[in-house]
Design goal:
Among the domains are: 87 residues, Conserved hypothetical protein from pyrococcus furiosus pfu- 392566-001, ParB domain, CATH 3.90.1530.10; 116 residues, no CATH class. The longest helix is centred in the last third of the chain and has 18 residues. It is mainly alpha-helical and 368 residues long. A 4-stranded mixed beta sheet has the order 1-4-2-3. About 15% of the residues have low confidence. The chain has 21 helices and 4 strands.
């Protein structure tokens, strides 16, 4: 049985490589964990190596420091750097969870940490043998040699190495790992936290990350704020990822169409709708009809109607061509034309277009 010792909390050392593997508790989880330590004291020792580097217990160490503990219980293991990293990996909370995202992150951090240890001379097959088959490498080639060689080739093999390694060790489809790695390197932290807390799955998180990359406003701070609002609504269940795709596509559609209009038309439409860009309140139908009413020629919309008639009867056929004219909005114009009467009545009630009677009065005044 391993001996539990009590040492000064200031003697413990944090190692970023080992710490990177660990699951960070949510604020709510951490506060509950901290309250338990305050009431019951430290029951579980912190695992350290011979250099007193923490291998298991980073959340515990942080809480004990904040609570003012001077002494902590530890188990000291006689491990070298490689063994220490493997111990940290085997004991961390990510590997004990059923959450696929957390497991992939743990594997990625483990691989990256292994690559950062300069004195590794163990062939790649030695640490891949736990799960799956080893990759084909030269006899005696070390992990960093293998990885650095791929990076120097300036190809996608570096990413392929990570993807295949993680997929094999966790027995996952490579596509799922590719999605997860894309999210890991490109998504905002709030999406990653949502994955960790099972509020969203990996493929929808990947799609959400891709869709949000098309959000673009001149005010970058406001751009990030609106992206975060959409993320929050997806994680809370108020919106689906498909909803976000539609919101982003429709906003970009009207922006694209306005690029072909005069400055006066664009300014007038933006004055009415810009504050709603990339929000659930943006109404593309209304923005389009408003634009057509302002623009005398309405050239893009007329072009859209003309081609909708010639392309075919289905939305899929029309949309394939109209993607270059602003996304979904133009492709759907054919269906909207049948609702023009209802839309006109709504716009007339809002005072945004003139009624037929008002137009006749204008004509009479002009002729007189």
């Amino acid at each position: 049985m391993e001996e539990i010792r009590e040492i000064s909390i200031n003697d413990l050392r944090e190692n970023p490589l080992y710490k990177s593997i660990f699951k960070r508790l949510t604020e709510q989880e951490y506060e509950a964990f901290k309250r338990d330590l305050k009431i019951n004291g430290q029951k579980i020792p912190i695992i350290v190596n011979k250099k007193l580097e923490v291998l298991d217990g980073y959340n515990r160490l942080q809480a004990l420091k904040e609570l003012g503990f001077k002494k902590v219980k530890v188990v000291i293991k006689n491990l070298d750097d490689i063994q220490s990293l493997q111990e940290a990996y085997s004991t961390n909370q990510y590997t004990r969870t059923k959450n696929t995202w957390n497991k992939i992150v743990a594997e990625l951090n483990f691989i990256e940490a292994m690559l950062k240890i300069q004195d590794i001379n163990t062939p790649l097959k030695n640490y891949l043998q736990k799960r799956g088959r080893p990759r084909k490498i030269e006899l005696g080639e070390s992990i960093p040699e293998y990885f650095e060689k791929r990076k120097k080739e300036k190809s996608a093999l570096g990413a392929e190495f990570r993807t295949k390694t993680i997929a094999e060790r966790l027995q996952l489809k490579e596509r799922i790992v590719e999605y997860a790695l894309y999210v890991y390197f490109n998504a905002p932290d709030s999406i990653k936290l949502g994955l960790s807390e099972d509020k969203i799955q990996i493929k929808p998180a990947y799609e959400l990350t891709k869709f949000l990359q098309s959000v673009e406003l001149e005010d970058k701070e406001e751009q990030e704020r609106r992206k975060q609002v959409l993320i929050d609504k997806v994680l809370s269940g108020e919106l689906t990822v498909h909803d976000v795709n539609r919101i982003v596509a429709e906003t970009n559609a009207i922006k694209s169409m306005l690029d072909g209009e005069s400055d006066d038309v664009r300014e007038e439409v933006e004055k009415e709708f810009k504050s709603l860009y990339y929000t659930p309140d943006f109404d593309l139908n209304e923005a389009l009809w408003h634009t057509e009413e302002i623009a005398e020629t309405g050239h893009e919309i007329k072009k859209g109607r003309k081609w909708a008639d010639e392309i075919g009867e289905t939305f899929e056929e029309a949309n394939a061509w109209f993607s270059k004219y602003g996304g979904y909005c133009i492709g759907e114009l054919k269906g909207w034309e049948g609702e023009w009467d209802k839309k006109r009545e709504k716009l007339e009630r809002q005072g945004k277009i003139k009624t037929e009677g008002e137009k006749d009065n204008d004509d009479n005044e002009t002729s007189s």
